[in-house]
Design a protein that fits this description.
Elements: E1 3-6, H1 16-19, H2 23-27, E2 36-40, H3 42-50, E3 55-61, H4 70-75, E4 80-84, H5 86-93, E5 101-106, H6 113-118, E6 122-126, H7 132-144, E7 149-152, H8 162-167, E8 177-179, H9 189-197, E9 201-205, E10 212-213, H10 217-221, E11 225-229, H11 238-243, E12 246-249, H12 261-272, H13 280-283
Parallel strand pairs: 1-4, 3-4, 6-7, 6-11, 7-8, 9-11, 9-12, 10-12
Antiparallel strand pairs: 2-5, 3-5
């Protein structure tokens, strides 16, 4: 039986996870030593539950309790369900709940980069991408277009940032990911050593005079390939480009020199995709 709790006061300590904690505070161990994240919308929450993430509580518009939130309430067991009218929830969270449902969930320990590299043929590496919208979009492309896993550098935005999770449409729970290094000093030198040590050819997506075209057939034939994408604006670090085995460019027209990193990732992942991971029925 769900524990339905009517919100009477916005100062209720139980609601701070939704209203007052920053993304950094959510990542800090709380509630029995657990780190949390927020999933938003029925589809995204459902993806997280299917992937085995444990719910802590739900926050939803009252009108969804017997509607599209009913299945989620049943699947979440006896966790508290905080509810109120939309106007109260908007005041609580500071923005309109376009999907009307939020769920606080427990983070899981991340696998090591070595574990992911050992079972992968195509890896996306996100270097210092700070916009959660871009991170979420890259994850969605990586999952859809046959990448085996994603590695994020220590200074990259957290893939479980609320907006990144939402933009990814839940694919952040479907494609394995890990951080390649615990602090900024470990990338790119140590991170590159990890990639090369696992037998990966490192392809840096960047503008360079010695770059090769993304259409080069040799790229598709590479058995273990790590595609490195750089931060918004500045692109990849010079040290990253210098340490890569290949520098790859996307052919452009009309004098355009580059694409947004999320758009560039989709183009690159499609061209370099691991065909074994792509649904054969979708290809035909």
């Amino acid at each position: 039986m769900p524990d339905l709790i009517e919100i009477r006061s916005l100062s209720d300590p139980a609601l701070e996870v939704y209203a007052r904690l920053t993304e950094s505070q959510l990542r800090s161990p709380r509630y029995g030593g657990e780190s949390l994240f927020i999933a938003e919308s029925p589809k995204v929450i459902s993806c997280a539950l299917e992937a085995g993430y444990a719910p802590v509580s739900l926050l939803m518009d009252r009108r969804h309790i017997d509607g599209k939130g009913a299945d989620l309430i049943a699947r979440c067991g006896d966790v508290p369900v905080y509810t109120a009218d939309r106007a109260v929830l908007e005041a609580l969270t500071g923005f309109a709940l376009t999907r009307g449902i939020l769920c606080a969930m427990v983070r899981r320990p991340l696998p090591s980069p070595e574990t992911l590299l050992g079972s992968s043929g195509r890896i996306a590496v996100l270097e210092d991408i700070v916009d959660p919208t871009n991170v979420g979009a890259v994850f969605r492309s990586a999952a859809a277009l046959g990448m085996d896993a994603v590695l994020v550098t220590p200074s990259c935005c957290d893939p479980l940032h609320r907006r990144a999770v939402r933009v990814s449409m839940g694919t952040v729970f479907q494609i394995p990911w890990a951080r390649i290094g615990e602090n900024a000093s470990q990338w790119p030198k140590k991170g590159m050593e990890t990639l090369h040590g696992a037998g990966f050819t490192v392809a840096a997506l960047a503008l360079s005079e010695d770059s090769i075209s993304l259409e080069d057939p040799a790229l598709r034939k590479t058995q273990k390939l790590a595609v490195v994408l750089g931060t918004e604006g500045d692109g990849l670090k010079r040290e990253t480009v210098a340490g890569a085995d290949l520098v790859v460019r996307i052919p452009m027209a009309h004098g355009v020199d580059s694409l947004n990193v999320a758009a560039a990732s989709a183009v690159a992942f499609w061209q370099l995709r691991n065909m074994e991971n792509v649904n054969k029925e979708e290809i035909m």
